[in-house]
Amino acid sequence: MMSKEKIIFSTDWIKVKETAWGYHYLERKGRDSVAIFLIRKRQSNTGDYEVLIRQQPLCIHIPDINQEHKLYPCPITGGIDAGESPEEAAIREVHEEAGFSVQVLPLGKYIVGTQTNEICYMYYADVTGVEQEKAQQDGSYFESISHNEWHPLEYLNQCDYSACQIGYFRLKSILE
Question: For the whole model, what pTM was predicted?
Answer without folding.
Answer: 0.80
